[in-house]
Amino acid sequence: MGLATREAYGEILKELGGKYENIVVLDxxxxxSTKTAVFAKAFPQRFFxxxxxxxxxxxxxxxxAAGGKIPFVxxxxxxxxxxxxxxxRNSICYPxxxxxxxxxHAGLTVGEDGASHQAIEDISLMRSIPNMTVIVPADAEExxxxxxxxxxxxxPVYIRLGRMAVPDLFAADYTFEHGKAVQLADGKDVTxxxxxxxxxxxxxxAKQLQDAGISARVLNIHTxxxxxxxxxxxAAADTGAIVTCEEHSIIGGLGSAVAEVLVENSxxxxxxxxxxxxxxxxxxxxxxxKKYHLTxxxxxxxxxxxxxxxx
Amino acid sequence: MAEKLxxxxxxxxxxYAQSIRYxxxxxxxxAQSGHPGGSLSAADxxxxxxxxxxxxxxxxxxxxxxxxxxxxxxxxxxxLYATLAEKGFFPKEELLTLRRIDSRLQGHPSMxxxxxxxxxxxxxxxxxxxxxxxxxxxxxxxxxxxVYTVLGDGELxxxxxxxxxxxxxxxxxxNLTAFVDFNGLQIDGPISEVLSPLPIxxxxxxxxxxxxxxxxxDIQAIYDAIQTAKTIKGKPTMIVAQTxxxxxxxxxxxxxxxxxxxxxRQQCDLFLSQLNELEAQ
Lengths: 311, 281
Hints:
Structural class of chain A: alpha/beta
Order of helices and strands of chain A: HEHHEHEHHEHEHEEEHEEHEHEHH
CATH architecture of the largest domain in chain A: 3-Layer(aba) Sandwich
Oligomer: heterodimer
Helix content of chain A: 40-55%
Helix content of chain B: 40-55%
Structural class of chain B: alpha/beta
Radius of gyration of chain B: 17 Å
């Protein structure tokens, strides 16, 4: 097992802090959990705890960016995208200020804290805002590269990170290309498009399908916005069926973004793996993923179903 | 203590303020939309800031060393636009494009549209946080730049204001000076009746701000308060400016209905003549 994406975030943020003097970091009393505490220890003069006040977290971030700084602001996804949505929209995205929102503990795999802390709407909320870039890294290395990209890119970025450790998928030589899907396996019968922690499960599903004689392409879409239309259209043309997988509501997230591209360009049968318009609950992450049908087995079953719908 | 303004300087500033009020009435009438009441109440504060205090240059609106201004009560955009035009950031004729399609003068200030706007605002409660962020950035840069912001009194009902209030004192942002445009009225009526934020000075003092109370239409008092704020170390300053909503236009003064209503063209002519008479006095 590799690191949780939040752990990789803490490490790379400290490294980038040494490289870019303009990086400042803000947290809302969760720095030990979001891992911004690593940066805080290395650069205490550039770390500011705003306390339990997420609206002000975003507003101060906006002001720092307007003053020429590169603020990384962190809290749990629920309180970033959810509670402070309007501050992100009006104070950060409308003026296109250079604020990086690194939101941790996204999705059901927050686990035991339960539904109040399980953000399953954040991708939907964030991608609907003009000027916003939305990135969901799949593993530690992709997180390092995505955070580095965010630091060097001029404009608002929302990066969705997870609490639990995830398997390493990418080696140190991995190149992150903003807005470009990463093909992890090629296939001709179906394409599985996954993001975040579901990429590992998608890989696993492809192996299961191979054993059943089904050839599946696997695409990792780390940048939900702007989305890689070309890769999606090509997948539809080459394989004729799509399954999307995300640890997020099926409403408004990756599945919706892919569906938007498909219906306007090359409609093919599609199935969505995600949280089906319901709240989560307390439990260990693996039990939650199983109960809410976010496993490799669920993906493989959806792949078989979508293939059966092909004309 | 900094020197007082001369009587001549005060008279000149009062002329600017009258001209700004004239522009506010004109532009809101032309747009047939906008917020005249709270623009007129803040005219003397913005005049004093932009013409007697702030280090800003219309020919170099992005200068890193400049002082910053955040209009937290963004609906009072007309007073900011009129002040910036008076100062020379853009031609005064452009004021008449307020709120029109393709205009740089958006209904609420947009920093990407118009030179001289340091922060986009409009959704109440957010400006003080941005101002605090700007003040913190200036301090990190060892810049002498100071940050000014104007909040509405009704705006104090927004919880986010108090998050920012705590932040600014915790981080000892003494390069931040805020004003409350205390005109006592919000859209639905007197602030004391809608949802009272009173007592205002005591609240800011309890949040450990340095608090100064002034008549917000007394240019000399505004200037003095700004000078005092510059001497206060280790905490931000809140200047609670007692004002009159609609100040300068008799028919508008102290009437909540003029919060977000444009005068008719006939009313406009009357109001402008009143402002002319005031200036002549």
